[in-house]
Design brief:
With about 240 residues, the chain is α/β, with parallel strands linked by helices. The protein is built from 7 helices and 8 strands; from the N terminus they run βββαααβαββαβαβα.
């Protein structure tokens, strides 16, 4: 990881959000911080709810677990359109005039050749389910990925204007590497192992569902959960027989 971008959103979907963001180097020292604003995001929340409802309906149909879901026939759902609408709503919101100066600064201060981990922190229930990888920001930084921050993760320095570097405490990381067939997972695994200021690191290679669940319960608080690869189809099929 070359840079760590922390974006923390505070507000309500039907009102507005204050945005505190900072860029940290590989030693987790703050090299830039600022604040911005975002307007209400009701269109995004509505698109998100339609997408989640359709997804749950599809899972219920596949696994034979009927639930009280408004969409009765998930085979008629146009999932591609729902994802497209969600992506448009997300990028329209993050391209709003209030947030545009922040976006321009990020594009100017980060190098597309760098590995940038974007940490998203929010107390809004709906925004925790947003597929942030659909943000156009990641098209400019192809080596980047995102992670949701737990509420107790250290917040940005509230004393904006203080030019002194702030060092973040060490973090706990769990990496889950799924089926790597056709995917080069070795480089990312090497990068994760080389990170500095890591208090706890656990890497699960092609684990079963039970192994993941047990690891999550025993790990305690995890700041970053990294996922790569796909589910191990053979084990899933074996458990379903």
């Amino acid at each position: 990881m070359d840079k760590f971008l922390v974006i923390r959103l505070e507000g309500k979907a039907d009102h507005f959000f204050s945005v505190n963001y900072e860029i940290l180097d590989s030693d987790l020292k703050v090299i830039h911080y600022d604040k911005a604003y975002l307007p209400s995001c009701l269109n995004l929340v509505n698109a998100l709810k339609r997408w989640r409802t359709a997804y749950r309906a599809d899972l219920s149909r596949k696994f034979g677990e009927p639930k009280n879901i408004s969409i009765s026939n998930s085979s008629e759902i146009d999932h591609v359109k729902l994802v497209h609408d969600l992506k448009i709503s997300l990028n329209d919101w993050l391209s709003s005039p209030e947030f545009q100066p922040c976006k321009e600064k990020l594009l100017a201060k980060l190098d597309p050749r760098e590995v940038v981990l974007v940490g998203i922190g929010t107390d809004d229930h709906d925004l925790k389910y947003v597929p942030w990888h659909l943000w156009s920001f990641f098209e400019h930084f192809p080596k980047s990925d995102f992670a949701l921050l737990r509420p107790s993760f250290s917040k940005v320095n509230d004393k904006l204007g203080n030019t002194e570097n702030v060092t973040r405490p060490s973090v706990n990381i769990m990496a889950i590497i799924g089926d790597s067939r056709g995917i080069d997972t070795a480089e990312d695994t090497t990068v994760i192992k080389s990170l500095s200021r890591v208090n706890y690191l656990q890497i699960l290679s092609e684990p079963s569902k039970d192994e993941v669940r047990n690891a999550m319960w025993s790990a305690g608080l995890v700041d970053i959960l990294f996922l790569q690869g796909t589910a191990r189809k053979s084990k899933i099929e074996a458990r379903s027989v």
